[in-house]
Write a sequence for this structure.
């Protein structure tokens, strides 16, 4: 279970990690998100001004779930077909990927590909729910960004990642702490703080595995928006992790009741949605 960090602990951890500064293009993307007019041309021009981002955006937009068989050939076409918010979320995630991991060993490529798929599923689930914060899709990508940094900085972390994939949710952070003295929730929280992400967003990254993360009331660890980020991401993770025959999600039984209750979904309804998603992914 992640714990709150005081300033001294935060500074000590930052001394041992290299976290790049928040990129300017992320500020410009967030400004467009806040613009009620959401100018399509301005968004297209901003993304097109970064060749690497443009290439990555077209690759992501043509993924099976997002593209759905359509051939998206330009950034303008992607904005028109996917919508401004979806494109901003995708672009923000791709910026995160490029700035946090300049190195591209195979294990990092696999991690980021999985992260982008999870982000897409999170967006699809958010469309079915009421009163979902805009940042849910961004959180789905950002919540595990600490893994990318630890893969680059901690010897043997790739093996630890394999152990994490087999662990229940209440063991994921403990495994990392035992082997590396830190965990990806703590590192992700530090990235969120350095990048001036909203406080509730940063706290959701830190406390996402806490058994009381979705608890309400005067002593709640997180506010409603942060709880929704955690719940949507965990439900999307289950849907994505079980998309192929034989794939398992060991931690889901422990979290299922609390997550679905917070989202206002019953188990049958959610499993039906997962089945539909799996068919869509298989047929795309």
């Amino acid at each position: 279970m992640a714990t709150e960090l005081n300033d001294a602990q935060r500074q000590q951890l930052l001394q041992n990690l290299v976290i790049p500064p928040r990129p300017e293009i992320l500020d410009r993307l967030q400004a467009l998100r806040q613009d009620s007019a959401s100018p399509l041309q301005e968004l297209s021009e901003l993304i097109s001004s970064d060749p690497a981002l443009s290439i990555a955006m077209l690759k992501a937009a043509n993924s099976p779930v997002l593209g759905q068989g359509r051939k998206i050939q330009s950034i303008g076409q992607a904005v028109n077909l996917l919508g401004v918010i979806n494109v901003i979320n995708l672009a923000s995630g791709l910026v995160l990927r490029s700035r946090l991991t300049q190195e591209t060993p195979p294990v990092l490529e696999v991690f980021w590909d999985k992260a982008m798929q999870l982000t897409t599923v999170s967006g699809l689930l958010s469309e079915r729910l009421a009163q979902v914060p805009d940042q849910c899709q961004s959180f789905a990508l950002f919540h595990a960004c600490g893994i990318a940094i630890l893969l680059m900085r901690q010897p043997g972390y790739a093996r630890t990642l394999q152990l994490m994939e087999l662990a229940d949710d209440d063991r994921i952070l403990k495994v990392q702490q035992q082997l590396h003295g830190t965990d990806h929730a703590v590192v992700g929280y530090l990235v969120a703080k350095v990048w001036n992400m909203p406080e509730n967003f940063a706290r959701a990254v830190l406390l996402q595995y806490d058994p009381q993360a979705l608890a309400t009331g005067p002593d709640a660890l997180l506010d409603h928006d942060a709880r929704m980020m955690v719940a949507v991401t965990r439900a999307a993770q289950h849907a994505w992790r079980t998309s192929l025959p034989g794939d398992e999600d060991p931690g889901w039984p422990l979290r299922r009741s609390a997550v679905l209750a917070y989202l206002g979904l019953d188990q049958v309804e959610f499993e039906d949605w997962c089945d539909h998603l799996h068919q869509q992914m298989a047929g795309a």
